[in-house]
Specification:
- This protein is of the alpha/beta class.
- The protein has three domains: 199 residues, TIM Barrel (Alpha-Beta Barrel); 85 residues, Roll (Ubiquitin-like (UB roll)); 90 residues, Helix Hairpins, CATH 1.10.287.1080.
- The chain is 39% helix and 19% strand.
- Strands 1-10-9-8-7-6-5-4-2-3 form a ten-stranded mixed sheet. A four-stranded mixed sheet has the order 12-11-16-15, with helices on one face. A two-stranded antiparallel sheet has the order 13-14.
- A hairpin with a 6-residue loop joins strand 15 and strand 16.
- The longest helix is centred in the C-terminal third of the chain and has 20 residues.
- The two termini are 26 Å apart.
Length: 418
């Protein structure tokens, strides 16, 4: 049986997440925090734009971009998509796919145009009646890779993967259908725990992506108090955040809930990281070392890891030697941070500020010039010159990124989507 995805959905109206298509009750004033709470342990996110004007639509595209910068799962955008430009903007905002409403006749032609332009892997169809799909099935098979079907429980064989968007938890027989690739809708949003829902699906024999450990606690080497140390890292940057301890119960609760749970040696009790501060740590990976006496946890850290308010507990340097940090991730982030600082805090005599002052046309001219320099250098016998020209190009490209309000997450998300 193919693996089924669990897909929460959010509805955007006036820049806020609301309850549904017709119910405009605002669910949270903090959109990004709401999205994070909704999507932990989800496989994808479905976003509906309920805007009624171009200004509201543009606002929502900006918010969708911020959502995609925040989450680490793919997203599908739907709602109020009228033009090829809308599809482009949503894909550029980081969405993996865009779903067009098949109830609108104008979208039949648009879906063909968009599928041909961006590729069928970027396009989906959205429908609330099977006829909307069946009447255009030949076109859809050529230009979309899947279907979002609203409030239907009896499926025809479309020969396309279907994401079912439902109000209530479906019966096992419906979920088991081979064409069903994912489950979404208000019932997913209202599940108390996506982790528990996925476990229910697995117990029903449904293949889902479930967080499980390949070892049990008995296989670990503990100290005299039955504890094992845990080194905690940011899953994106690998920054070391903290060190704590687990006993059997906290280890098993971490696996069960997906939230890092530790044993406090000073308080002699379990503690869920973030239970009082809201700064939860959501598990992304757990590793065991070669001696099986230390755990490495890679987590999605909400807020600060340290009780002092610092992001990491390791913020106080006690020794330093001079060395060049050539870690690509750190170098790109450090240079980009300097460029951003120059933009926010201009410095007299700064070449970066000179570029910002001259504006986008000057920046684009320099990017073009540096790209040409790479081509010329690569044609010369001595390829050492190429690295200098690539470095110049990357610097000017980062200035352009800052001018266009892009960051490395935007770029890496787009590369990952490809």
């Amino acid at each position: 049986m193919n693996r089924k995805s669990v897909i929460p959905c959010i509805f955007l109206k006036s820049g806020k997440p609301v309850k549904g298509f017709k119910d405009k009750q605002v669910l949270s004033e903090d959109l990004l925090s709401y999205v994070v709470s909704l999507t932990n342990f989800a496989d994808e996110l479905l976003i509906f734009d309920l805007s009624s004007s171009d200004a509201e639509h543009d606002l929502h595209i900006g918010l969708i971009r911020e959502i995609n910068r925040t989450i680490d799962i793919p997203s599908i955008a739907a709602g109020n998509i009228k033009r090829l430009e809308d599809v482009k903007k949503l894909l550029y905002a980081g969405c993996k796919s865009v779903a067009l409403n098949m109830a609108k006749q104008s979208n039949i032609e648009l879906i063909s145009e968009a599928g041909a332009r961006f590729g069928k892997e970027k396009m989906m169809a959205c429908a609330d009646a099977e006829e909307q799909i069946l009447d255009h099935i030949a076109v859809l098979k050529e230009y979309v890779h899947g279907i979002v079907l609203l409030d239907h429980e009896i499926l025809s064989d479309f020969n396309l993967p279907v994401v079912l968007m439902l109000k209530n938890r479906p019966q096992k027989a419906l979920i088991e259908q081979e064409c069903v690739s994912g489950l979404s809708g208000s019932f997913i949003n209202e599940e108390p725990s996506l982790m528990e829902f996925k476990k229910w699906l697995k117990n029903e024999g449904i293949n889902v992506n479930l967080f499980e450990s390949t070892v049990n606690f008995d296989e670990l080497k503990t100290d005299g108090n039955g504890l094992v140390p845990v080194v905690v890292q940011d899953y994106k940057t690998d920054a070391v955040l903290m060190v704590a301890y687990m006993n059997r119960e906290s280890f098993e609760l971490t696996i069960k809930t997906g939230k890092m749970t530790y044993y406090s040696r000073s308080r002699q009790k379990l503690w869920i990281k973030g239970e009082t501060s809201g700064h939860f740590q959501y598990v992304r990976n757990l590793y065991i070392d070669c001696d099986k006496d230390t755990i490495l946890a890679k987590v999605h850290q909400i807020g600060a890891a340290c009780h002092t308010g610092n992001y990491s507990c390791f913020f106080e340097e006690i020794m330093h030697t001079n060395y060049r940090n050539t870690n690509p991730l750190n170098v790109f982030e450090d240079v980009f941070a300097v460029i951003h600082d120059r933009k926010a805090n201009p410095k007299e005599g700064s070449y970066t500020n000179y570029l910002f002052d001259k504006g986008i046309d000057k920046i684009l001219k320099k990017v073009g010039e540096e790209a040409t320099e790479i081509v010329i250098a690569a044609k010369n016998p001595d390829h050492e010159e190429v690295k200098y020209e690539i470095a110049d190009f990357l610097y000017h490209m980062m200035v352009l990124m800052a001018e266009c309000d892009l960051d490395w997450n935007d770029i890496t998300t787009e590369l990952a989507n490809r």
